[in-house]
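WARN retry 2 of 3 for item q-0093 after timeout on previous attempt; input resubmitted unchanged.
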Amino acid sequence: MSSPPNASTATVPAPRRLADALRVLAMDAVQAANSGHPGAPMGLADLARVLWCEVMRHDPAHPRWPDRDRFVLSNGHASMLLYGLLHLSGYDLALDDIRGFRQLGSRTPGHPEHGLTPGVETTTGPLGQGLANAVGMAIAERRLAADFNRSDHTIVDHRTWCIVGDGCLMEGISHEAAALAGTLGLGRLTVLYDDNGISIDGDVRGWFTDDTAARFRAYGWEVIGPIDGHDAAAVSEALRQAIADEDRPTFIICRTTIGHGSPGKAGSEAAHGAPLGSAEVAATRAALGWTQPPFEIPAEIYAAFDCRPRGARAVADWEARFTAYRSAHPELAMEFERRVMRGELPAGFTEQARKFVSACQAKASKVATRKASQDAIEAFAPLLPEWLGGSADLSGSNCTLWQGARVVGPGAVADGNYLHYGVREFGMAALMNGLALHGGLLPSGGTFLVFSDYSRNAIRLAALMGIQVVHVLTHDSICLGEDGPTHQPVEHAPSLRLIPGLHLWRPSDAVETAVAWQAAIERRDGPTALVLSRQNLVTQPREDSRLGDLRHGGYVLHEPAAAPQAVIIATGSEVELAMQAALRLDAEGVLARVVSMPCVEAFRASPAAWQEAVLPARLRARVAVEAASSDGWRGWVGLDGVVVGLDRFGESAPAEAVYGHLGFTVDAVCAAVRQTLARLAVAGG
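OK item q-0093 returned
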C-alpha cells in the first residue's frame, strides 16, 4: 500500500504554498464565472490559512458541532476565500461546487449564504453586518457558558473570529457593534482587519483616513498591529495574544496587498471587483510558481490542508466531556440538547400560551398593545430560559422590560437576559441575527416602528436566512400624536410587509397581541415584527372556541345577522373603527362583515379554503382600513374596493385630533362601504 501524501515531511508543502492554493482557486473561480472579487481572497490567504489550519477549533465533518469556533467573513464579497477554505479543509463542498461559482443552482453564490453552504455561519455581503453578527455570537457564547457550564464541567468553550475589510469599517454599523462589544468586554471575540487600503473606487486615503487603531482602543478593545498579514509567524503570534486576553475583544490590524501574487494588478482597485483576465491569471501562476491547470490542486496540498483529523479529535474530546456532564448534571444536559442541539421549545409551552390567550380574552381590558405585549412577555419569558430581550434605548416606551429581567452589562454579560443596546437600531438588529445564528437563544429587541428604517437591512437578512428573531416595533401610527410626522410611521408597516419571509403582526387588542407573541415564539423559520400601538385599544368580543382562528392571521371578527353585502378588512387600531362602522351600517340596513387581519403573511399562508371562507370571491364589496400607505391593501379589495389609508405624512397634534383630521372616522369608513356598493350596483355586480 502506498503511503498517504502527507506521510513524509518532505512532501508537506510550505505554508505559503497552501495559501497559494487559496489564491489560485479564487482567481480561477472568478475568471471562470467572469464575475467576482479575486483581490481580497488573494490578499487574505496567508492569514486565513493560519487561522483555519492552526488556531480555529472546527470539524469539517461536523459543521454544526455546538462547541465549534464561529467564523464570520464580514467582507462577504471575498466569498471565494471562504469557499476555498471550506473545500480545502474538508467540508462537504466539492471542486465542482467551486467550478460553479456564482452560477444558477450552485452552492457557491456570489456572497456567502447561511443554510446553503456547509460551514457558512451567516449570510454576509452588506458590509459591516457580519461584524455585528460576530458580536452577537460572542454574546451568545458567554450567555450559554453561564447557563450550562459548572465548576466541574465545561461544555461551552469556544471563540468567535471575524474578518473585516475597509468597507465594513466605513459603514456606521461597525461603530454601533464594536462600541457595544468593547463595553461588554467580549474577550472571546477577535476581529482581523484586512488593511489593504483599496476599495472599488481606488486608494481609500481619499475618503477613509480614520485612526482605526485609536478608534478601537477608545471602544475598549485590545488592538494588535499593524502586522504583516502575509507573515504567517506574525499572524500566529497575534492570534496567540488575542486568545490570551479574556477581558477585551481583540482587533488585529493586518497589512495586506490586495491581489497578492498578481504581477500587474496587485495593490490596485483593478484586482478588487473584476476577474484578473486570462493573461494576468497566467502571469500570476508563473509568479507564484503554480504549474497546475485551473481547478487542479495537488494531493499533498489537500492532505496538508485537511482539518478533519484535528477536528475529529476536538469533537471526540467534547463528546467525552458531554457524556460526563450528562452523568453529573442530567437535567442540564437535557436542557442543552433541547435548546442548543435541537432548537425546540419546552414541552407544554403551546398549552400554557393557549391558556394565557384565553385569559386575555376573559379579562377584556382596554390597553395599548405595547402594554399587552409586556404582559405577554411577563407570561412567556419565565417559560423560556433561552429568552434574551432588549431595546434600543426605549425600554420604557417599548414596554420590553419585565419583572424577571436581568440586565446584561459590563461584568454581567453571562448572567443577563435583557440587553440595553443603546441608540443603535441597526446594530441591535444585526446583533440579534448573530444571537439567533449561534443557537440556544431567542432574541427580541424593541424600537419605534418609524426607526425600523435604520434596521431594515438586518431585518431583510434575517428573512433571507430564515432565522428566528422578534422585532418589537411600537408607536405604530399617526396616533403617536404630538411628536409629529418625523416619528409617525406611514409607509413602514406596508414596506416591511414587502420583505419575503418576514411575518408582520399588527394586533388590534391584547388577545391578538398574545397570539402574535405565541406565533413569533413558535415560528422557527423566519423573523417576526410585532407592530404595536401607543394608545389603548378595547378587547374585541370573541367566543373562546374561536380563539384558534386568530393564528390564521385573518379571520371573521364580526358577522351580521344575515348574509353580508360587504366586508371591512382592518388591522391594528383600525379594527375598532371597523367594528363601529359595521354596527352603524347594520342600523342602516347595510350588512357588513368585519375581518381582522393582524398578519397578512400568516393569512396568505393559510389553506385556500380558509381564505375563501373569510374573504369569499363573491363578496366583491370590500373596504380595507389601515392608518398607513394604501397600496398594499389594493390587492385585497380589488378594482371594485376602496382603501381608507394614508398616502401622506402626519401632523403634530394629540392623537385623536390627528386621527380624525386625516380621515380615520366612522363616517369615512361607512362612506367607503356605501361607495363600493354603489359602484358595484352601477356595474351590475
